[in-house]
Amino acid sequence: QMTIDKIAAGEVIERPASIVKELVENAVDAGASTVTVEIEDGGIALIRITDNGCGILREDIRNAFLRHSTSKIRCVEDLSRISSLGFRGEALSSIAAVAKVELITKPGEDAFGTRYVIEGGREVSMEDAGAADGTTFCVRQLFYNVPARRKFLKTAITEAGHVQDLLMRLALSHPEVGFRFLNHGQEKLRTSGSGKLDEVIYSIYGRDVASNLLELDHRAPGIRIRGYIGKPVITRGNRNFETFFVNGRYVKSAMISRALEDACKDFMMQHKFPFAVLAFEIDGEQVDVNVHPTKMELRFQKQQEVYNTVFEGIHRRLLEPEL
Ligand code: ADP
Ligand code: MG
């Protein structure tokens, strides 16, 4: 079991940002309204994630760290209608296999919290602990037992950059959750959790971008696209400012990027990329969410239709006169 976990971990856990992604998604799944992420040394020495979500019952803790154990799928039918972000039950076992993990958790209905320590897949301790409602994961010394993988990590600055970039996108995909990110105790990102996407965009990208947005709400059968695109005056030099969510999950999609860029082409200088934050609601059966372990690159049943809808919605919005 332990070796298999280590191998499986290689697929899911590439770097500190992969851990942050899995743990933040778990926090969101747990109904947290605030999530704080702290890192030291780019997350290699320490990642600490604190949420005020539902907590984990003591009797469920060991189970949560078992491979393919998830509380999020109860029957086969559920698989086609996954709304929660995580569903594969691999994250905790994978993380615990390649790092030293300390969990402190307390469900609201329990009087005591629990502190659980598991290192390299081996349980170290489980005991009572004073704790606020919710969950804190501390992940220390990533890949301490997998030197071959540790070698592939970049400098702390680069890894911290990956974490910050990821958190920006997670914050954008969940305006209803207040995020804080601290790197070596220094606050790098803070969102209010007000639920307003334009406020998150303001917190992250500043006034220049936030005051030059076009709101978009476009529907076609089986699909709805909402969000903001930047007016052509704030075009960017690279694709990093295109952020997409499908059914609440941050994704990369070359096809959506292409549709967006094709739609903007007539309005922009050549070799420039648009700013866009777009949330897609697509009928669950039309998206294959389980393409890659990190769940980032999606596949659509009807590629061309999705392309057309994105292109049309954006092109039309850019043609509309300003109110
Ligand atoms: P998955 O998210 O795919 O279910 P994970 O390995 O990420 O699998 O998590 C295993 C289980 O641990 C989850 O199904 C959930 O029940 C529990 N869990 C993990 N993180 C949290 C959290 N922050 N708050 C509450 N429960 C959690
Ligand atoms: Mg998960």
Automatic annotation (TrEMBL):
Family: Belongs to the DNA mismatch repair MutL/HexB family.
Role of this protein: This protein is involved in the repair of mismatches in DNA. It is required for dam-dependent methyl-directed DNA mismatch repair. May act as a 'molecular matchmaker', a protein that promotes the formation of a stable complex between two or more DNA-binding proteins in an ATP-dependent manner without itself being part of a final effector complex.
Organism of provenance: Schaedlerella arabinosiphila
From-to range in the entire protein, with total length: 9 to 331 of 681
Coiled coil: none
Residues spanning the signal sequence: none
Organism lineage: Bacteria, Bacillati, Bacillota, Clostridia, Lachnospirales
Protein name per UniProt: DNA mismatch repair protein MutL
Record-annotated DNA mismatch repair protein S5 domain positions: 201-319
